[in-house]
Amino acid sequence: MAKHVHLDRNQKRQWRKIRIRKRLSGTAEEPRLCVYRSTQYIYVQAVDDTKGVTIAAASSLEPAIKSQLKTSGKHVAAAEKVGELVSERLKAKGIEKVVFDRGGYQYHGRIKAVAEGARKGGLQF
């Protein structure tokens, strides 16, 4: 009889991430916009999986975003700003469409704010 193996939330997220990545892949014309969420910051990068290179990246650690947000409850607002910033950087390189990779996280809160910010910046997905 098989033993029940207990997985913590990060291990469960890693398994979800693997399942999602089976279906998603980024190209040079339509890169994968992947999100990583730590407890304090949020990181977004556009990846071309065919070459294995990062085309553009943004995070809430950047001084331009940190200086704009000095209020409490700034996580969701920072995530939206990060989405807008990465969309600006991609549009400067002539990229309009992306594939959104939520990285195993629930499409809610900061992850949703990144997506909405990127859409507000003019990206399509």
Provide an overview of this structure.
The chain has 125 residues and is of the alpha+beta class. The chain has a single domain, classed as Nucleotidyltransferase, domain 5. The chain is built from four helices and four strands, in the order H-E-E-E-H-H-E-H. The chain has a four-stranded mixed beta sheet with strand order 3-2-1-4. Strand 1 and strand 2 form a beta hairpin. Helix 3 runs parallel beside helix 4. It is globular and about 55 Å long. It starts with 8 loop residues before the first helix and ends in a 5-residue tail after the last helix. The relative contact order is 0.19.
How many separate domains make up the residues? 1
Shape: globular
CATH topology: Nucleotidyltransferase, domain 5
What is the straight-line distance between the termini?
45 Å
As a whole number of angstroms, the C-alpha radius of gyration is: 15 Å
Quickly give the structural class.
alpha+beta
- Strand order across the biggest sheet? 3-2-1-4
Specify the number of helices. Answer: 4
Mean pLDDT: 90
Q: What is the second-level CATH architecture?
A: 2-Layer Sandwich
The counted number of beta strands is: 4
Helix content: 40-55%
Query: What does the largest sheet look like?
Result: 4 strands, mixed
CATH class call: Alpha Beta
Strand content: 15-25%
